[in-house]
Structure formats: structure tokens, C-alpha cells
């Protein structure tokens, strides 16, 4: 039982390049989330998916797109990376909203630098 | 008013002392409250969850919730150097069908030996 996994762990991009961050969970959770964490800003929600087939914007969605590929996988895409997107990205999952708790469990994170 | 507020610290305590971390929140409809610990360079890990007014104890950790005053706190007894980390308070959005959590910016705790 690996919990929440993320790939890659580290990535360096040039401005304008695109990339997809992958996230998978093996806990049969319904909801999945993408956060970014910047110094002094705390964790900010980018997008979330309350169930397979649905996605919703969070606090800072601009410049990102997401895909809930199936119940296990939730990907985050940067179409044209900007230096302002340099951050640590965390994926998380929870049982809720269809029963269970809304406790969120986090992946190990992806450190992204955009030059 | 920010939705979840914490003192950024650093909060410094000697080994063996009690560390007290506080958090206030603005959404009166919130029902779920969490404390996460985050070591430098690592991901947040859950320490405690609390849903009802009062105290909840788990080993050296005690979470306290007061919905009327809209605050939640975490007490760490017999603090150890290994407790040195950033502690994040998180609260759910009471009026959303989803379960998005709002996180405070965290309090940095330093325990000196």
C-alpha cells in the first residue's frame, strides 16, 4: 500500500515549456486534490476532484489544467510554464464526500523550477 | 479576515516543556478540523483530527476545539527535538459539497535540547 505517489520528484523547465505532473492513490479514495506551496504562502488549492469525472477550481487555478483519468489518477498540466509557477506541488486524496472522512493524505511532492 | 490564521512563529520551547499552538478560523459552518506536521522538505502528515467541541488526546498530543470562539489548538506535552517542524492547521469549508480544506500558513516549532 503506497498511499499517494507523485512523479516526477524534481523538474526544471524553461519558460513556455509544458509538462504534466502525475498523481496516483491506491486507497480507493473518492476525492483528489492539487496544492502548491510557496514560502510564506502556505498550501493553496489549485484544483480538486470530488469524484471520478468531476473537477473544480480551487484558489489559484490560472495557468493549470487537470484531468481525473480514473478513480486512482489525477494529473496536473502546465501548458506554458512561467517563473511564477516555480513551487512545490502536492497531490492529496481523501475518502469523502461519499462517506468516510475528509482527512487528506499527501503525496511526497514535486519540486518544480521554471527558468 | 483570513480564513485560517496561525502565528507563524518561530515558537521556541525547551525539551520536556509543553508547546501550545493556536489557530482561528472564520467559517462558522466548518465541521472538520485537522493538525498536520510538516518537516522541512517533506509533505504534510496528519497528527490529529477533531470534530466535536472539547479535547481529544492521542499520546503526547491534545487537540482542543471551541466552535463558539472559532479556535482550535494543539498541545504537545513533553516536547522532543524531533517535534521541531511546521504545524499546519486545516479546516473544511462548511458550505461546500466537496471536502476542500483551507490551510493556515503554519507555525514553526523549535524544540531545543
Brief overview:
The complex is a heterodimer of chains A (115) and B (113). With 115 residues, chain A is mostly beta strands.
Rg calculated over all Cα atoms of chain B: 14 Å
Secondary-structure element series of chain A: EEEEEEEEEEE
Structural class of chain B: mainly beta
Taken from the alpha-carbon principal axes, the silhouette of chain B is: globular
Total helical segments of chain A: 0
Strand content of chain A: over 45%
On the 0 to 100 scale, the average pLDDT of chain A is 92
Ends distance of chain A: 36 Å
Approximately how much helix is present in the residues of chain A? under 10%
Helical amount among residues of chain B, as a percent range? under 10%
Distance between the termini of chain B: 37 Å
Q: Outline the low-pLDDT stretches of chain B.
A: none
Secondary-structure element order of chain B, as H and E? Answer: EEEEEEEEEEE
Q: How is this structure best described in words?
A:
- The complex is a heterodimer of chains A (115) and B (113).
- Chain A has 115 residues and is mainly β.
- Chain A is 0% helix and 50% strand.
- Chain A has strands at 4-7, 10-13, 19-25, 31-38, 42-49, 56-57, 64-68, 74-78, 87-94, 105-106, 110-114.
- The radius of gyration of chain A is 13 Å and the shape is globular.
- Chain B is mainly beta and 113 residues long.
- Chain B contains no helices and 11 strands.
- Chain B has strands at residues 4-5, 11-14, 19-25, 33-38, 45-50, 54-58, 61-66, 71-76, 85-92, 101-103, 107-112.
- In chain B, strands 2, 4, 5, 9, 10 and 11 form a 6-stranded mixed β-sheet that branches. A 5-stranded antiparallel β-sheet of chain B has the order 1-3-8-7-6, with no helix packed on it.
- The interface between A and B is medium-sized, with 25 and 21 residues.
